[in-house]
Design a protein that fits this description.
This protein has helices spanning 3-27, 30-36, 53-66, and strands at residues 37-45, 48-51, 67-82, 85-98, 103-118, 121-138. By secondary structure, the protein is of the alpha+beta class. A hairpin with a 2-residue loop joins strand 1 (37-45) and strand 2 (48-51). Helix 1 (3-27) runs antiparallel to helix 2.
Length: 150
């Protein structure tokens, strides 16, 4: 395969892992996360570390318990591929609709990511959530906010 084509395809697929991760979080869909998390995956951030795919999947339950709904957006991503490993940074915005009032908690964040190419595609082996700042602002929820995953 042409090296430039493979590099372009790898970058596309790495970004797709971040997009699937974001959609999986918003839909509370563990099957989507299973597609992109390695069995030995580690996810860490301020005050938490989850080790292993099953422990990481429990984060989806925590999101559902803490917030009425979420919207995660993937922005720019820079990744370097070295054979079957990749390293990079993914910028995101995560909005969390609070349970106790009509407001969203917004996180401006970056993930420091590590991936491994496995059978079936690229998977995260490590995600470190770096929180740059937060904002809380009032919103007017429209429609059904208890289950916005549909």
């Amino acid at each position: 395969m042409d090296a430039l084509f493979r590099q372009t395809m790898d970058r596309h697929l790495l970004r797709q892992t971040a997009e699937i991760y974001a959609i999986g979080a918003d839909r509370r869909d563990k099957d989507l996360w299973r597609q992109v998390l390695a069995e030995d995956c580690v996810i860490e951030g301020p005050g938490f570390t989850s080790t292993g795919q099953e422990a990481c999947l429990s984060s989806i339950d925590a999101l559902g318990a803490m917030f009425r709904a979420t919207q995660h957006r993937v922005h720019q991503q820079l990744a370097a591929v070295e054979d079957d490993r990749a390293f990079g940074e993914t910028y995101c915005t995560a909005e969390h609709l609070l349970r106790d009032r009509d407001a969203v908690l917004v996180w401006a964040l970056r993930y420091r990511d590590e991936w491994r190419r496995e059978v079936g595609g690229w998977r995260f082996t490590w995600r470190t959530l770096v929180l740059d700042w937060t904002e809380t602002r009032p919103v007017t929820p429209l429609g059904q906010t208890e289950d916005m995953r549909q």
